[in-house]
Write a structure and sequence with these properties.
Blueprint lengths: L4 H8 L9 H5 L47 E13 L6 E6 L5 E7 L3 E8 L10 E3 L26 E7 L4 E7 L10 E7 L8 E11 L4 H9 L10 E4 L23 E5 L4 E8 L6 E5 L4 E6 L2 E8 L2 E3 L4 E7 L7 E8 L18 E8 L42 E11 L5 E5 L12 H6 L8 H4 L1 E3 L5 E8 L5 E5 L4 E8 L13 E3 L1 E4 L10 E8 L4 E7 L2 H5 L3 E6 L1 H4 L6 H16 L20 H4 L5
Parallel strand pairs: 1-4, 3-8, 9-12, 11-19, 20-23, 22-30
Antiparallel strand pairs: 1-2, 4-6, 5-7, 7-8, 9-10, 12-17, 13-16, 13-18, 14-15, 14-17, 18-19, 20-21, 23-28, 24-27, 24-29, 25-26, 25-28, 29-30
The structure holds 2-acetamido-2-deoxy-beta-D-glucopyranose (8 copies) and copper (II) ion (CU).
Length: 623
């Protein structure tokens, strides 16, 4: 088959009957099929006002950072993580699945509910540690359930289970993923939906639309490639919507079994109705540009922050970012349209870049109105969006519904420079203020901080920024690297005071009501500060804990683009860490003593200390 035939063929196929069954492409998941239900899936709590835990709270009248509705339910989940072989785009590869599903199961709760997830590590052949992070959840009062190994827990050892229990403290759209090395690249990611007050009316909640760049190699090889001086950059092989896409089998490079026209995701629209789509960039590197042929989109929230609605043709999402949009179904009842998401190859790397329409950087899914034949191939044309910067939409476009002004005199201002280079033994690494992060899985920095210990000998590579008891923190970040980075802070929605290129001149956009979110893209920069990309972020120290601040590109964080911020340390010292969290370190210590752990990236290093620390030095429970 000619190289171009299959992928070009997506647009020239006679029908969209998938060549593979859903079980072959996505295991037990029904996402991406017309059988995937709209949301909500559950009935609201009956004995509460309006059946809703948040009663009369609205987006505009309630400060979500100080208020969470009481009386919520607890939703319990059991997650078994194991290896599997699936063909999401027709190419057979080994992946990591939760309960046999790719994407992993959608978690769906109400604001104020408690989420309890028992995670069992059943990864074998070979074994690996794991840990799940609940992106954007504040974890106020439960900083030990944030899920970053070596920071708030030790990895969940093979054969062990660990239960995360935390409050759904904000509402909107997010996701969860492994935070162990670049493991989520192998498929360990899923949507997390928290229903709350609505700032824009709509009829149908279509649910998550996960946009993920996709790779045919295993993540460990890709991390090795990332860290090898002189090696070409890691490039994605395809781009998926809800875990599905076709691939041109002529481009398979390593002999994997490949089936053409494996099957695209399909969505159902009702003519005349308003649809909510929850867009999530859950990929490893690619910056996504999302469009729907023949439709505009109304933005209602960015990350967990509801915003005054604005209409656009194209949504830009860096890794980790979410945008909730309303799409008015203006087409006739028998119509069908292409949904598209493009990895912007000016900002990201894809292995097949002779586009359009060949490029595997272009994800497609079909939207069928109620009377359309759901196997027909849409014939609509793409919405053009011109030359866009490797950046988020201008800050001036975004106005959060609930204003949360940032103080003009933060207690501490920390400047941070992002650079790229090689370390003393010739591996490629990213650094923040000259230091590249390296984890040590035998420790939890949170547990040490809880004991008042922020003076450990390994301090430099743990990249700890101890902000003591400062009440507000401003981060002025400069990027001296020629690609953008989606920068993510755990435990907070930060105010985004400014972003741009050059030296920040002190100007703040919408000072009384800046954009807030939990990931913000910093622009590419030149190699000197005067030509750097910058972002200026600020947040109040109202959440005692150890909170990572890092680039969300899997390859960059693996290469050390990561710091730990210690917040409100004297309050942190008063917290009592649950015994089960301590147990992860005991179990990991036993496992790492007996097994050789492959060590390569920032998240996998098990530093040689001349033997492991005695157990007592690792964990002392503070009472
Ligand atoms: C599609 O790819 C083939 C093979 O690389 C190439 O010959 C052709 O020009 C491409 N078509 C477009 C439209 O880019
Ligand atoms: C996928 O690869 C695995 C492991 O090599 C193999 O066991 C399985 O049969 C393959 N599946 C297909 C459809 O080729
Ligand atoms: C949809 O219905 C219109 C009006 O009846 C008709 O003109 C058109 O051909 C139909 N389109 C399809 C794809 O069936
Ligand atoms: C990529 O850059 C080229 C050259 O500047 C430009 O023509 C093109 O529109 C850009 N693509 C996007 C998606 O911005
Ligand atoms: C350089 O990075 C590699 C890969 O992370 C690591 O194995 C090595 O120990 C580092 N070298 C130094 C001197 O830190
Ligand atoms: C690192 O590479 C440089 C040249 O690229 C070489 O001069 C130097 O000896 C290497 N260092 C180590 C520790 O291998
Ligand atoms: C802090 O913790 C490290 C690592 O366990 C240990 O080596 C060091 O002695 C501790 N410092 C104090 C003051 O307890
Ligand atoms: C504020 O943070 C700085 C470090 O950035 C630290 O030196 C200082 O002691 C902190 N102040 C308080 C009151 O904790
Ligand atoms: Cu980055």
């Amino acid at each position: 088959m000619a190289a171009s035939a299959v992928v070009n063929g997506i647009l020239a196929l006679n029908s969209l009957v998938p060549a593979l069954p859903q079980s072959a492409t996505n295991g037990n998941s029904n996402l991406g099929t017309l059988q995937a239900p709209t949301l909500p899936l559950f009935v609201a709590t009956p004995n509460l006002p309006d059946g809703l835990p948040w009663g009369t709270a609205t987006v505009a009248n309630t400060n979500p950072y100080t208020t969470t509705p009481g009386g919520g339910q607890t939703h319990s989940y059991q997650f078994n993580i194991a290896r599997g072989n699936i063909q999401p785009d027709g190419v057979n590869r080994s992946v990591l699945l939760v309960n046999g599903e790719f994407p992993a199961p959608t978690i769906e709760v109400n604001w104020g509910d408690t989420i309890s997830v028992e995670v069992c590590n059943q990864i074998t052949g070979p074994e690996e540690g794991t840990a799940l992070h609940w992106h954007g959840i504040l974890q106020t009062l439960t900083p030990w359930y944030d899920g970053v190994p070596s920071v708030q827990q030790c990895p969940i050892a093979p054969g062990k289970c660990f239960t995360y229990t935390f409050l759904a403290d904000l509402y909107g759209t997010t996701w969860y993923h492994s935070h162990y090395s670049a493991q989520y690249n192998a498929g360990l990611l899923g949507a997390l939906i928290i229903h709350g007050p609505k700032n824009v009316p709509y009829d149908i909640d279509v649910g998550p639309v996960l946009l993920t760049d996709w790779y045919h190699e295993d993540y460990f090889s890709l991390v090795e490639q990332t860290m090898t001086v002189g090696a070409p950059p890691v490039k994605s092989d395809n781009n998926l919507i809800n875990g599905k896409m076709n691939f041109d089998c002529a481009f398979v490079t390593n002999g994997q079994h490949c089936t053409p026209n494996a099957g695209l995701s399909k969505f159902q629209f009702q003519s005349g109705k308003a649809h909510r789509l929850r867009l999530i960039n859950a990929g490893s590197e690619g910056l996504q540009r999302f469009t729907i042929d023949g439709h505009t989109m109304t933005v209602m929230a960015n990350d967990f922050v509801p915003v005054k609605p604005y209409t656009t043709d194209v949504i830009t999402l860096g890794i980790g970012q979410r945008t909730d949009v309303i799409v008015q179904a203006t087409g006739p009842p028998n119509s069908s349209f292409w949904m598209r998401s493009d990895i912007d190859i000016n900002c990201s790397f894809n292995s097949i870049t002779n586009d359009p329409p060949n490029g595997s950087s272009h994800a497609l899914a079909a939207i069928y109105y109620e009377d359309a034949n759901t196997n027909e191939v849409p014939t609509t044309t793409a919405t053009p969006y011109g030359d866009l910067a490797c950046a988020n939409d201008p800050l001036s476009e975004t106005t959060p519904f609930f204003p949360f002004p940032a103080t003009s005199n933060p207690a501490v201002t920390q400047e941070i420079e992002i650079t790229f280079g090689r370390n003393a033994t010739n591996f490629s690494v990213f650094s923040m203020n000259g230091e590249s992060f390296r984890a040590n899985y035998d420790y939890s920095i949170l547990a040490l901080a809880n004991q008042g210990n922020l003076s450990y000998p390994l301090d430099p590579e743990w990249n700890v920024f101890d902000f003591g008891n400062n009440a507000s923190i401003r981060l002025v970040v400069y990027n001296l690297f020629p690609a953008s980075h989606p920068m993510h802070l755990h435990g907070h929605n930060f105010n985004v005071l400014a972003e741009g290129t050059g030296i920040w001149d002190g100007t703040i956009t919408h000072q009384q009501n800046t954009q807030r979110r939990d990931v913000q893209i910093i622009r590419p920069g030149g190699s000197v500060k005067a030509q750097a990309g910058y972002i200026v972020l600020q947040y109040n120290a109202d959440n005692p804990g150890v909170w990572p601040f890092h680039c969300h590109i899997a390859w960059h964080v693996s290469a050390g683009l990561y710091i730990n911020t210690v917040e409100s340390v004297s309050l942190l010292e008063k917290r009592v860490i649950p015994q089960s969290v301590q147990q992860t370190c005991t179990d990991w210590g036993v496992y790492a003593h007996n097994d050789v752990v492959d060590e390569i990236d920032s998240g996998l290093k098990d530093r040689d200390l001349g033997g492991l620390m005695p157990e007592s030095a690792k964990w002392t429970r503070r009472s």
